[in-house]
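Intended use. Records such as the DUF1836 domain-containing protein entry shown here are meant for training and evaluating sequence-to-structure methods. They are not intended to support clinical decisions.
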Amino acid sequence: MKQACEGPFRLPRYAELPTMGLYLEQVTAYLNTQLAPLEDVRLTSAMVSNYVKHHLITGPVKKLYGRDQLADLIFIAVAKNILPLGDIRVAVRVQQNSRGDRASAHDGFCEELEAAVEAAGNDQPLFVPVTRTPAQQMLHDLALEAAYKANVDRFFAVTREAGD
């Protein structure tokens, strides 16, 4: 993940999200700008419409999307590259309820993602003070991502078994 802007990667906190509603094209432009440092995390108007259709986010009011939808879309944009649609539905619900209120849940997710991006972007590998070639680092990162994905997959398997 490359930094597309100067300074550390930072997502807008809930209170910093636009207070006035945005039309669909404005939503995708705004969020894609915010998520640009993540490179492969992008949203299209069709995706957003599909998320509304599948009840992953609430529909717009008079064609305008508000803070809650923007916060949910930031989470979904990141999760969609890792999780299948059915698991995203559960993950959105878990994320929304993770800290008691939507603002705290969104802000907490932003902090977690920023810390992960910073750790992954360091020249030094995570937790192991060794020097690696770029190819070795890629393989190390791939192994970490696979391990973390396995942990996430186990969470959803247990959740599905519990009927949540």
